[in-house]
Input
Amino acid sequence: MMMSSVLTGMSQPFKIYFSSVLMHHSAMKNLIETLQLKLSNAGYIADKDLVTTLVLMEQLGRPLLVEGEAGVGKTEIAKVLAKIYDCSLIRLQCYDGLDANNAVYEWNYTHQLLSIKLLEGSKESLDQREAHIFNEEYLLERPLLKAIRQKTPPVLLIDEIDRTDEAFEAFLLELLSDFQITIPELGTIHALSVPRVVLTSNGTRELSDALRRRCLYHYLDYPDPEKELLIVRSRIPGIETNLSKQIVSFVQALRESELRKRPGVAETLDWSAALLGLGVNDLKNNIDIIYQTRACLLKTQDDMTIFARTLINRLVDAVL
Amino acid sequence: MNIQPPDSRLIGFIHHLRHEGFVIGIQETIDSMTMLNSSYNPDESLSRHIIRSLTCRDHAEWQRFDELFSAYWFPYRIKKNESNMMASIYARQRRGGIAGIGGSSKEHIDKLMESADISGAGAGRQRTISKADFRFLNDARAAREAERQAERLALLLRKKLKRRRVITTHGDKIDIRKSLRSNLKFGGLPVKPAYTQRRREPPHIIILHDVSHSMAWNNPLLFRFARGIVRAFPASEAFAFHTRLFCVTGLYRERSLEIMRSRLEASNHLWLGGTCIADSLAYFNKHHARQAVRHDSIIMILSDGFDTNDPKQLGSELENIKSRARQIIWLNPMLGRDGFAPDETFMQFAAPHIDRFAPAHSLAALEDAIRYLAGYRKRI
Output
């Protein structure tokens, strides 16, 4: 809606108030459109709602928690942000049993021991010795500490946070709310610059409310056909229009089947690349090729069993 | 016409979301107002995206947000959503006149208040729901909330059973870091080593879920409970049965609740038939037990125990299961209600093989079951 048409008939004070509001929204929309274009140029096709969330993340300086099925492009968000902001990407891959020593910092015990031995003959008191071996010289940086000690704000990717346990999640709270880390022997280390934090989760377990409350939230769903087509064309430039449409239609239909693990965007791209490599330009007459390349789409034995030639024929007849 | 200032409308919307169960703090409210610049709404989709990112905390809230947003800001666009799965299930049950449910709304409220612990009135709606009998949760919103809590309870079990190693004075593995730290006073020599010990392993649970007609009215809640357990413990298995038994592990792991329900209902004729528990257990023993049941498995049966088969056969099948598994827990939604007593023949033949026979008629009862499972631990 044009601004003039909105303001028609309003009194002067209202006109001033609403003009400022509309200008704010106009600036916000510009930011969103610019970022969307940048993401697109970097090879990431994003919806307006995701781009809005990324703008909010930038403006409010809050971490972003992205949930969604595997292979829908959650991790890619962090990678592409690092690309467009031209900064480093620091990645912390989470796993069951991850603790602060592997994520934040660790003391270099070997050097500490060596130092203790060297100090044995000296006249330094026990406190002095302790102060000596617990200084930054013996501190080994792990991803989280590294991220807050960068002069230029990096993108910090905390991948698959749902794989860690609750204790580590609780540990993250201090970092995500205040961007500081407390090392008992050294004190609190404040961030030199506030990193752009992206947390991803596959939803294999519930995350704590405290962690969710500190983050902006976005659920990344499987893309609709139009968006997926754009992604395929953007990532695989050499692919023919007809083939890309067929691939997307087929994968979209396959996602509706009762599979244990539905193919994500990553699987669509792998399959497209495989078909292109095999010189296929039409899926309709290549049922055998579809069957032989099913490993690109399906990741479990159960799904392989379901994906028989009859199902392929049915899907091909239905969508192509 | 009552015109409210834009700020108060946004705050009203935040209150509305809180009322619907969203957890929204002051900071999120301030951020929403800042980002919307005093909340005049010239661009619907932009405002929608901004508030959604700031207020949603999980996928369930994300899915509900659009409907709530439209209902609040554009009520004239909203028609009654007849396709709402849960509302339709409850409505269908009420229309079906299943014994023990329904009644006038006043009667329903009275029963709800009666069965709930209203002495803790200040503790809020959740406390009321936690003690309320599932029978009386006819109100769709209360039922949805109870379902959410039921699934959450099951997921909480995982939280109780962490798998991290803990530092101990004795154990199976030396923790080098801790040993060096605590032995600095000895010049770094490990005079008093520190050990780590594995925390207990979560139980391996197999759920046998009765989905027959007699269980219809509390099945949505027990579904969520069973689903929570299957999702919390990847090694768990789930089977549903009425007159026959079928594996539902994959379906219960389905992230979308709506897809899960529609697939289950579409293919398995839920809540329609009678119950053949003994036959179903026999099928389980013959076709699934060898692969699914481990020596340390806990078999959790969710059933009211109304069976058309011979109780002797039920006893024999339970004995068979017990010989393979560690424990059998039977959670009965009828138990704990006034006037209900298990059938004598059932107690004679089945009960000797059951390690725990407990109620499952309220969230508090399910919480007890979770507490029991959390307490049941096995050393590696």
User: Anything to note?
Assistant: The first strand of chain A starts at residue 64 and ends at 68. Residues 62-104+142-220 of chain A form a domain with the Rossmann fold fold (CATH 3.40.50.300). The radius of gyration of chain A is 26 Å. Strands of chain A lie at 64-68, 89-93, 105-107, 139-141, 155-159, 180-183, 187-190, 196-201, 216-220.
